[in-house]
Amino acid sequence: MVAPQTQAPAQQQPKKNLSLTREQMFAAQEMFKTANKVTRPEKALILGFMAGSRENPCQEQGDVIQIKLSEHTEDLPKADGQGSTTMLVDTVFEMNYATGQWTRFKKYKPMTNVS
Predict the structure, then answer these.
(1) One pLDDT digit (tens) per residue for the chain, 115 residues
(2) Is the residue at 15 inside a domain?
(3) Category of 83 on φ-ψ map: left (φ > 0), alpha (ψ -120 to 50) or beta
């Protein structure tokens, strides 16, 4: 008697042949080198997207997903040239599942004095 074969759980779907080009691998290494806020699952999601995966695991958030890579402060000169302002700088990775495009950008927020 042969035991019936069971289906693998949904999480164990066959892996697609996704791979990064040499340039993409270099870009990812550079991006993650300074990343201090991104989690391991988020890194995996980013790498998969860069390699061509278009399965959006966060469909409830829409087609555009943003992941914070890093957070640090920068002293930027004031617009009037008098002194500087400390800004909180977030580096964000944005993936557009509708177009397949991705981009990195910075968000600047003024630091509030905490006393």
Answers:
(1) 544 444 444 444 445 678 889 999 999 999 999 999 999 999 999 999 999 999 998 889 999 999 999 999 999 888 888 888 899 999 999 999 999 999 999 999 988 765 4
(2) no
(3) left
Q: Is the dihedral of CA 52, 56, 58, 64 positive or negative?
A: positive
Residue 115 within a domain? no
Q: Between the CA of residue 89 and those of 98, 99, 108, what are the distances in Å? A: 27, 27, 5
Domain assignment of residue 33, yes or no:
yes
Q: What's the predicted TM-score (pTM) here?
A: 0.77
How many of the other CB atoms lie within 10 Å of CB of 86? 13
Domain residues for the domain of 93 are 22-110
State the total domains in the chain. Answer: 1
Whole-number Å distance between alpha carbons of 91 and 71: 6
CA distance 22 to 39: 23
| Position 10 in a domain | no
